[in-house]
Amino acid sequence: MRRVERSRKTRETQSRIVLDLDGTGESEVSTGIGFLDHMLRSLARHARLDLTLVLEGDLEVDDHHSAEDAALLLGQALNEALGERVGIQRFGWALVPLDDALARVAVDLSGRPWPEVQLGCRREQVGGLATENAAHVLNTLAIEARMNLHVDVLRGDNDHHRIEAAFKATAVALRQAIARTGESDVPSEKGSLG
Fold first, then answer.
1. Which of 31, 47, 169, 186 lies 20 to 30 angstroms, CA to CA, from 176?
2. Is 3 helix (H, G, I), strand (E, B) or coil?
3. Measured on CA atoms in the order 27, 124, 149, 164, is the torsion positive or negative?
4. Could you tell me which of 103, 99, 31 has the C-alpha nearest to residue 69?
């Protein structure tokens, strides 16, 4: 079973997650930030993850703590669900258009975190989420999931579309990378990932 339940509580947020890597894309996401909820539901749908993520945060301060903690919890759950990373595809990539936007993403579930996220947004905020925090969510997800994640939005005039294309491309690449191969070994010359 590649299913994880966990929770997190700080002075700034409290949250809980249920993540199933072998799901159908069903999700229930509530962070108090509508656009972030939309992006995380989209990620779950296109990665075919079953995801429940409920978070209450100090939105009276701003969106940063809630966005960051949602990504922390999701990344940690993903890392835990992958376990020793035996019998997974490991690599995934996607080129995803969304109207005027085009995003390219490559994923390596190497166990060595390295995010490179270039969204190229011009607006400060989309739907209650600072565009800098959209990138921060992907960076934090990569670090906590211990994956190599390269995200480049190649074009697009609409920042909503740029960010959504990036999340969808991440989902498609992640879906490939977490896929079971039927093998019983770790996909690495070293014999381990991490």
1. 31
2. strand
3. positive
4. 31
The domain defined by 3-178 folds into Ribosomal Protein S5; domain 2 (3.30.230)
Q: SS3 for 63-76, per residue?
A: CHHHHHHHHHHHHH
The encoded tokens of residue 146 equal 């211990």
pTM assigned to the model: 0.95
* Neighbouring C-alpha atoms within 13 Å toward the C-beta of 80: 15
The string of pLDDT tens digits covering residues 138-169 is 999 999 999 999 999 999 999 999 999 999 99
CA distance 147 to 174: 10
Element (H, E) at 194: none
Q: Give the position of tokens 């997974």.
A: 88
Tens of pLDDT along 25-74? Answer: 999 999 999 999 999 999 999 999 999 999 999 999 999 999 999 999 99
- How many helices and strands, by DSSP H and E, does the chain display? 4, 10
Strand partners, 117: 151
